[in-house]
Design goal:
Blueprint: H1 10-24, E1 48-50, E2 58-60, H2 71-76, H3 79-85, E3 90-96, E4 100-109, E5 118-123, H4 128-139, E6 144-147, H5 160-175, H6 190-198, E7 210-213, H7 223-228, E8 232-239, E9 242-249, E10 256-257, E11 260-265, E12 270-273, H8 281-285, H9 291-304, E13 310-322, E14 329-344, E15 347-348, E16 365-366, E17 370-376, E18 379-386, E19 389-395, H10 404-427, E20 434-450, E21 457-473, E22 479-482, E23 488-493
Helix pairs in contact: 5-6
């Protein structure tokens, strides 16, 4: 069992994060999107066993890279899995409860493969080889650098111009009638905050003092990590005149297993998810890239990084949110994201909106493995790799799946129960609000599940996911539709028909 360490990086990291926030911007994503209609990857043959970092024993077909390419293959033959589950090509149903109405009009997507097998999954942290392969492929192996925060301690790591810009923005905010400086502490007035920043000007250099950063990935079990209370690497890389912020965090805490490797192009704001239909006309005109070319570029860079056995599990547009002055406003800058997942036996791990980061009382969270590449017309915007797995096949026997007729019965019973319970918790017993649910896609694929409280081992299990939208009908006649890409509204274990909570991962 690993020793668990916290993220206690001290005063220097606080300064580093403040500067990183100014230079790199926030990188979290948000926003609504529309579920794509693309198919899952279906290899033309079984392929051969390939390993990633000598840890993955998974069958893959290098000839196909995303779900869309399976359409022609699906028409050639449905495969043994489809014969076993006997699911319709299109699923229709309509059921109602006291406050919930569910209508299914959905394509049923089944992998064209011989069958699901048993795989054990273990969590791991990043190693030096991971950093080297990613850095070489995406950053040309360029050296890391950062500001010398010790040399710039008198100005908290900021240059004179950066401090002056910050003061000017605070003065503009104060003129708008705001009395409190809300960016960092709500109990300070703008005058007090401005005075504190002005006090830093005397020691602030005109140009940042830079220092090389050793690109050393820290093992959280090492003596160094235990003494520092961290296993963290961060810095900047300059490539073709652009600065990229690089962070690799091997630290994990007692209640949350989350290790993350991220490369983010410097810009003001962050790219959040957005459907094409939600983009402004100006933003649509700014889409001067080819989606097909981006997909090819992403696949090529995945191969260059050594990611064999990963496939395109989902795609969506991203829009840049301007986060200056503590506000979020959409811009007309558009990017495109590719979400990669593992493929085992020609069957992808199903990509969903849920990241597995929820936890219950006295439990812990273990986020799912994720690899995401985001591009705009100029190239890479963001790379993010979280919670890598060690995957081991434990049996070559094909698993028995319940017929879809039994899955449908579970769906009809549990959709009403799940969302009536949700309605009661959200609106109360006496509420007349209603929720209309539309299921537009049903998909069979792998999912990692685990035991509650275990963040070291799990199992790849075949599951049915029912994707769709929710429309809330309020008592005052107003309504709101939640239409988010890859939002699985119900997940059913294909082996025994039990319900799985994707937020918790079990």
């Amino acid at each position: 069992m690993r020793k668990k360490i916290g993220n206690m990086r001290g005063k220097r990291l606080i300064i580093c994060c403040m500067v990183a926030a100014m230079l790199a911007g926030t990188v979290a994503g948000c926003g609504d999107s529309v579920q794509t209609n693309e198919q899952i990857v279906v290899p033309k043959d079984e392929g051969s066993n390939q390993n990633f970092n000598q840890e993955q024993d998974a069958q893959t077909d290098e000839g196909q890279s995303d779900r869309e390419q399976s359409q022609d293959t699906d028409s050639e033959g449905k495969g043994a899995i489809a014969e076993q589950v006997q699911a319709p090509e299109h699923f229709t149903a309509e059921i109602s409860g006291e406050h919930i109405h569910v209508k299914a009009d959905a394509e049923v997507i089944i992998p064209n493969a011989e069958g699901f097998k048993t795989y054990k999954v273990a969590s791991r942290v990043f190693d030096q080889g991971d950093y080297a392969s990613v850095s070489k492929a995406l950053l040309g192996g360029e050296e890391l650098w950062d500001r010398d925060y010790d040399a710039m301690a008198g100005s908290n790591g900021f240059t004179r111009s950066e401090i002056e810009q910050r003061i000017e923005k605070m003065k503009e905010q104060a003129e708008d009638g705001s009395k409190l400086y809300e960016e960092e502490a709500k109990d300070r007035t703008y005058d007090e905050a401005i005075a504190e920043w002005e006090a830093l000007l005397e020691a602030a250099p005109e140009e940042p003092v830079l220092v090389d950063v050793p690109a050393t990935v820290v093992d959280p079990e090492s003596k160094e990590a235990q003494e520092k209370g961290e296993a963290y690497l961060s810095g900047y890389v300059t490539l073709n005149g652009e600065d990229y912020y690089v962070s690799l965090d091997n630290g994990y805490q007692s209640e949350w297993m989350y290790v993350n490797f991220r490369i983010q192009k410097r810009h003001n704001g962050y790219y959040g998810k957005c459907s094409y239909n939600d983009l402004t006309d100006e933003a649509k005109q700014n889409i001067n890239f080819s989606v097909e070319e981006i997909k090819e570029k992403a696949q090529g860079q995945m191969e260059a990084m050594g990611f064999t056995g990963f496939v395109d599990g989902g795609e969506e547009y991203m829009v840049l949110y301007d986060s200056e002055n503590g506000q979020e406003t959409t811009t007309d800058e558009v990017g495109y994201a590719i979400h990669f997942t593992r493929e085992l036996d020609g069957i992808p791990v199903t990509y969903t909106l849920e990241d597995g980061g929820e936890w219950e009382k006295d439990s812990i969270a273990w986020n799912y493995e994720k690899i995401e590449l985001v591009y705009d017309a100029e190239g890479l915007i963001r790379f993010e790799w979280s919670n890598p797995y060690v995957v081991e096949k434990t049996s070559d026997e094909y698993l028995f799946l319940l017929p879809f007729s039994e899955i449908q019965t579970v769906f009809e019973n549990m959709m009403i129960k799940k969302y009536e319970d949700y309605h009661q918790k959200t609106f109360g017993d006496q509420s007349n609000e209603a929720i209309d649910i539309e299921i537009n896609e049903v998909r069979l694929g792998y999912m990692r599940i685990r035991e509650a409280g275990d963040v070291t081992e799990g199992t790849m299990v075949p599951v049915w996911d029912f994707f769709g939208t929710q429309t809330y009908q309020y008592e005052d006649g107003q309504s709101y539709t939640e239409d988010i890409a890859y939002n699985s509204l119900l997940t059913i274990n294909a082996l025994d028909g039990t319900i799985i909570d994707r937020g918790l991962g079990y």
